[in-house]
Amino acid sequence: NFRLWLTSYPSPVFPVSVLQNGIKMTNEPAKGIRLNIKGSFLLDPIADMEFYYGCNKPGKWSKLIFALCFFHAIVQERRSFGPLGWNIPYEFTTSDLAISARQTKMMLDQYETDQFKALKYLICECNYGGRVSDDKDRRY
Length: 140
What we know:
The protein is mainly α. The chain is built from seven helices and no strands.
C-alpha cells in the first residue's frame, strides 16, 4: 500500500511509463468571478485567520484584500475569453495573489501613511504586470 504524490512540469526526461500508469489530477481556477473570489479567500495566506485578522488597520485591510481578490478573479476570468480577453494567454497563479496580499499587509502594518501608489506599482507592474508582454494587454 504505497502512494506517491508527485508534481512535475512537462519534461522530456520524465519517464512516460510513470505518467501512463498513474492517476493524473489538475487544479483549474474556478469558473466565474464570484466563485473565483470565494476560492481566493480560501487560499493561503488569506485563509489563515492569524494572517487575516492580524493587520493593524482592519478597515482598510478588509477593503484592500477584497479588491485584490476581485482583481485576481478578473485577471483569471479574462483568460476564458481567448484573444478578446488577453492577446497572449498569461499564466497568473495563486502565488501572484499570495505575494500581493503579503505586500499589502506589510505596507499597511509598517507605514503610518497610505502607500497606495507604491502598492499599485508593486501589484500591477511587478507581480501581475511582469508577465504581460503585449502592449495592448498592458493597458489593463
